[in-house]
Specification:
Strand order of the largest sheet: 1-4
Oligomer: single chain
Low-confidence stretches: none
Number of helices: 3
Helix content: 40-55%
Strand content: 25-35%
Number of strands: 4
Amino acid sequence: MQFLNWLFPFNQNSPKITAKERMQSMLLHDRLELPAGKLENMQEELVNVVSRYFELDSTTTNFDLKHFERKAFLTANFMLMRSK
């Protein structure tokens, strides 16, 4: 098995995986009936609220919208530098 992994390395950033993730994201947006730009506005508002209380490292802020068993989950990750 190690030989096969060496021969055909699995690339996490392959175009196939990227395209699959984009398609899943588009389908999830469609199922949630989110208008264009609504998710981006919500992300901006979340950053504004959290930044009132903490200094954030904006380069590591990450939002992820996933689905599991016909439910949607929005995960927000903020690197907090210090409280204000």
